[in-house]
Amino acid sequence: MNIWPHIGISASGVVGVVVVATVVLYAVFVAILHFWGVRYLAAGSTMSVAVFTVLGALCARAMLGNSPTLCGALVAMATLFVLEFGFGRLHAVMSMRSHRAAGRARAWTVMIDGRARPDALRHVGLTAERLHERLRAGGVRHLDDVALAVLEPRGTLTVVRRGESIDPKLLVGIAGLPPGFGDVDTTGGR
Q1: Does some domain include residue 37?
Q2: What is the b/e burial string over 83-110, where b = at least 16 CB atoms within 10 angstroms of the residue's CB?
Q3: What is the pLDDT of residues 133-157, one digit of tens each?
Q4: Are residues 170 and 135 in the same domain?
Q5: pTM of the entire structure?
């Protein structure tokens, strides 16, 4: 009984199907995540999870070629890990340099002093209803309790409650903060 066709892969299959397909699909998937990922992650809806699950499944299936095999999957996985490690390191270095040089923010202020910022919500693709849902999930019971809410680059929501202080260094790089916000103690009646 010859089991090699079921678990193995030829050299041309490794190069032609698995490695090339994995590199191309990785680049496409990273581009999709870069341009639309934060909006989908910020929304946190069932549909956004379903869309990314389907995209991931399509990419995974296409990476394995006509006949998925154990060796083909191992080569695709190894290629993905190498790509993720290499581009992750490159992205970290480039991102740090470009954000410092351009003064661009990576996080957005979506609420100040209990009031949502509609312009910021539009920019990040978050509705007021979704913001309120995420605040409730984070244990906020009254909007007036929120001194600051920041949508982070990965879609998480950071909430600084009235009465809490925050180190001004943690506010560097956040878009939409009023001038001097880090100098004001949130324990007062702002």
Answers
A1: yes
A2: eeeeeeeeeeeeeeeeeeeeeebebbbb
A3: 999 998 999 999 999 999 988 788 9
A4: yes
A5: 0.53
